[in-house]
Specification:
111 residues, mainly beta, 5-stranded antiparallel beta sheet, 3-stranded mixed beta sheet, 10 strands, 41% strand
Length: 111
Amino acid sequence: MSAGRPETLRLDWGETEKAPADRRRWLGAWLVSREGEEGDYFYDGPGGQQTTHRVPPEAIGFRLRWYPSENEVSVNLELGPMASVVDDYFFAEQAGPELTLAVLELLPEQR
């Protein structure tokens, strides 16, 4: 493991109390530069999950996007549902071997 990068990322995507059609859909991508360049995607799925991801050597953080649930009506009829982007998350200088986060706590309205 390199300094500043955990080996494993565990994410709790929240919303387990909601029906599947009421959960946000998430897309996670590794960040490979401080300028925001994305690497591979590591998650494309609904909330209500807990997932574990091996952090690739080139990753210095991650970016999350979420889409409205199937039951929300905030849809752009021409382009479809629009994604919202959570602030980029960069790994701390001296990260431990595993980083565990609750995704909903990263949303601006939760801080």
